[in-house]
Specification:
Layout: E1 14-19, E2 22-25, H1 29-40, E3 45-48, H2 85-97, H3 102-114, E4 119-122, E5 125-132, E6 138-145, E7 150-155, E8 159-161, H4 167-171, E9 176-177, H5 194-197, E10 203-204, E11 207-211, E12 250-251, H6 261-281, E13 291-296, E14 301-302, E15 307-308, H7 316-320, E16 328-332, E17 336-338, E18 352-354, E19 360-363, E20 375-377, H8 386-392, H9 395-415, H10 425-437, E21 458-461, E22 467-470, E23 476-479, E24 482-489, E25 496-503, E26 507-515, E27 526-535, E28 538-545, E29 554-560, E30 563-569, E31 579-583, E32 585-586, E33 591-592, E34 594-595, E35 606-607, E36 622-628, E37 652-653, E38 662-679, E39 707-711, E40 716-720, E41 727-745, E42 755-756, E43 758-762
Length: 763
């Protein structure tokens, strides 16, 4: 029993002081990835989240799918899914939750954080005060947990603001922007007309419906709008749409998206319940009789508020031109995606999206405050113009950059540095190397890891695929759209291929050999050669031979152009680094087969050639005139862990007939080994939306699930079964000394040969 007498003095809540190496404020995907990354390198981390769950917009509170450079597989960014920790999270979610239940995703995130003993997690805890020292550094933050009536004072030499609105950066006095820049400031043709289009992107609020198997009535609350049929956006509604497919239910871009957020939410509630009143009671949706509202969001998904200034500001030209910088630590690839400020009440299109030809680099200098010396920026608040923010704001792009922030904090701790110090040439290379070891894959950045013992090893394989074609299957695809087989070719390399087609009548098949104008992208914007082949009715073999060649080492696109009178024979074989793409429409990402923007906005025109999700998207059955030696064991030594636009598959691939392939690493003398890392193919081209979409499989079929590692004596160092992750790190209990490592793999997929991108060995 507790009994306490009256006090004339006000009482204080319980106060707990916390000391850490890094304090992360904000528990969305960005904050989670920053915190875990730092904690795994032995930093003591306090993670402060003002909501009861982790995940931010990806959580069950909002239920937005997380996306990034893959853009629903609707752009030309091949093999662009974000790597490292966020990819680990996505693959874990796929294994447990391929149907996309947002509640399950909550648990995936919570488990990842809970398992890190170096993280002190504070949920339902909101920062409301920042204390600075005299040296332009944050000294501590004060936060209150409403659920345990406790005040926390978290102190640290380093802070990361991943809060979305930038509460720490704002209170610390850091310079920031809110709203759109003029076209003139950064020469951004896509900068909006502020008076007409507005300054800011608004909030969205989603709802779910459920069929209860019997008619059910609905009485709306008094505050619901009464004229939903007059909403310009109501035409977007299709019965059965729920969750983030209702992203267009948006409001608030004319308001203060920080301080009026609750007002915006209430307006969205009025709209949502008004829409449902219209659906249930207008008589225009009789098939909705058995439907009821199952869930309505209680907090909106917020797109935009403050953006803070770093030593570099990302702009439109960085995205359109795929500019590379010495301090690149992350990348993006979502379209520049702006929404009219009036949202659901606007007569404008729900959004305006313009894509770049490929992924763009994001410099490290965008990820720290230029004013507050010990403050990292992560998530949607990084240093970017309003137009560039239209791309960089999406969650997987944010999370990928936040991982780099977490690793930068580790380097700061180890060497007594501040965030800006790492922007120097020697320090940034050290950070980039650390990120690469974690599979983060910074575009177009080639790194040599001298500490990796594989660089001095001789590699032998039980077999290596010399690619000369795909075996034919009894499967045909009608050319209702252009279909292209992507193959990696060297500059000035020519090749002849044979395919089998069936014509329903006499017709002409147009063949094109396309490539890309630059090594920064996979957009087939150059026609190298083309020819027309006259077809008779029925099945026949077509030969495509060309003496014209591309000028760059790059992926070539062997294109069969649209002709609905023709079918092409497909293959069941799937091989790492080889795929088909189609010239077709994906309206979800403003892909109408090609992009033709107004000239004045300074965005490129080009065609979209995009993949189909499995089980579709099969390769074309074909025979090559010569074998392509693109899967050599030397690929295991380079720094890449995915195919790249310079025409490298970057993988060793075994023969498809080799059911128990093996790799041996041999050294001239014994080496000390403590850590072994394997990088497998997790199909970085496949978008892994976290919720709602659903996926055809729970494990990416290219990933090697079963293998063992032996030393020179034949002793088993590690046996793995049931693997589904891209990166396997084996930490031996004790360092061993050996002159050989043998990797024995098990082939589990009939039509997919075993492949490995990289093996790393460390003392």
């Amino acid at each position: 029993m507790i009994s306490e007498a009256y006090s004339s003095q006000t009482r204080k809540t319980k106060t707990v002081a916390l000391e850490a190496d890094l304090v992360v404020v904000g528990g969305g995907l960005s904050g989670v990835c920053a915190a875990i990354t730092a904690a795994r390198s032995n930093l003591k981390v306090v993670l402060i989240q003002d909501r009861p769950v982790l995940g931010g917009n990806a959580s069950s509170e909002v239920r937005l799918w997380s996306l990034g450079a893959t853009s629903h597989m609707g752009n030309n960014n091949r093999w662009s899914r974000e790597g490292g920790l966020i990819n680990e999270i996505l693959l874990e979610n796929l294994k447990r939750n391929k149907e996309g239940n947002p509640l399950i995703f909550d648990t995936v995130l919570l488990e990842k954080v809970y398992e890190e003993k170096n993280i002190t997690l504070l949920l339902n805890t909101a920062v409301y005060e920042v204390e600075k020292g005299s040296d332009e550094k944050v000294k501590n933050v004060t936060a209150f947990c409403s659920q345990n009536s406790t005040t926390y004072i978290a102190s640290s030499p380093l802070f990361c603001d991943a809060s979305g609105d930038g509460i720490v950066a704002f209170m610390a006095g850091a310079s920031f922007r809110m709203g759109a820049e003029t076209k003139e400031e950064f020469d951004e043709g896509f900068a909006p007309n502020i008076r007409d289009y507005g300054n800011l992107l608004g909030h969205s609020l989603y709802f779910y419906t459920k069929d209860v198997g019997k008619p059910i009535s609905y009485t709306p609350p008094s505050f619901a709008i009464k004229n939903a049929e007059n909403l310009p956006r109501i035409k977007n509604y299709q019965l059965g749409d729920h969750g983030c497919k209702l992203w267009w239910v948006e409001h608030g871009g004319r308001l203060d998206t920080v301080h009026q957020s609750e007002d915006i939410k209430f307006e969205l509630w009025k709209v949502v319940y008004g829409i449902w009143d219209y659906v249930k009671n207008s008589g225009k949706y009789p098939e909705a009789d058995n439907l009821t509202l199952e869930w309505v969001g209680t907090i909106p998904g917020k797109r935009e508020s403050r953006r803070f200034e770093g030593d570099f500001m990302l702009t439109q030209k960085d995205i359109v031109e795929q500019r590379d910088y010495y301090d690149a630590i992350s990348f993006g690839g979502w379209a520049m995606d702006l929404h009219p400020a009036d949202g659901i009440y606007s007569e404008h299109n729900s959004c305006t999206q313009w894509h770049g030809k490929g992924v763009y680099s994001i410099p490290y200098r965008c990820y720290y405050s230029k004013n507050i010396d010990n403050l990292f920026l992560a998530g949607r608040i990084i240093s970017a113009s309003h137009v560039a923010f239209g791309s960089s704001r999406v969650m997987l792009t944010c999370a990928h950059g936040a991982q780099a922030v977490g690793k930068a904090a580790v380097l700061c701790k180890e060497e007594g540095l501040l965030p800006r110090d790492i922007a120097s040439k020697d320090k940034i290379e050290k950070l980039q190397l650390a990120l690469n070891r974690d599979g983060q894959s910074i575009p177009r950045l080639s790194l040599e890891d001298t500490a990796d013992l594989i660089t001095n090893a001789t590699i032998h394989a039980s077999s290596t695929l010399e690619f000369n074609g795909f075996a034919a299957a009894d499967d045909w695809q009608t050319l209702t759209f252009g279909l292209a087989q992507m193959l990696p070719l060297k500059a000035n390399e020519n090749i002849t291929l044979e395919i089998e087609v069936e014509a329903v009548e006499e017709t002409v098949l147009e063949l094109q050999l396309k490539s890309s104008s630059a090594c920064t992208h996979f957009t087939p914007d150059i026609i190298i050669d083309k020819q027309e082949v006259e077809l008779k009715k029925g099945k026949q073999t077509v030969t495509f031979s060309t003496t014209k060649t591309q000028s760059l080492d790059h992926y070539s696109f062997f294109c069969l152009m649209k002709n609905e009178n023709i079918k092409v024979r497909l293959s069941n074989d799937r091989v790492t680094g080889l795929m088909t793409v189609e010239n077709k429409i994906n309206k979800a990402v403003s892909n109408y087969g090609r992009q033709d923007p107004p000239a004045e906005i300074n965005v490129d025109s080009f065609e979209f050639w995009t993949p189909q999700r499995r089980p579709e998207g099969k390769n074309i059955a074909l025979k090559l005139s010569k074998s392509l030696s693109v899967f050599k064991t030397d690929n295991l030594k380079n720094s890449e862990v995915r195919p790249t636009s310079n025409g490298n598959t970057n993988a060793w691939v075994a023969n498809i007939e080799d059911k128990s392939p093996s790799i041996s690493l041999n050294w001239n003398e014994k080496v000390a080994i403590k850590t072994i890392k394997l990088f497998f193919d997790c199909d970085y081209d496949h978008a892994l939306e976290t919720t709602l979409m659903g996926h055809p499989e729970e494990v990416i079929p290219f990933v090697v699930s079963d293998y063992r590692i032996k030393d020179a004596s034949g002793s088993i160092l590690k046996e793995v079964t049931g693997n589904y992750q891209a990166i396997n790190t084996i930490e031996l209990e004790e360092s061993i000394s050996t002159e050989k490592l043998l990797f024995e793999f098990i082939k589990n997929e009939e039509h997919i040969p075993v492949s490995v991108f990289k093996i790393s060995i460390f003392a």
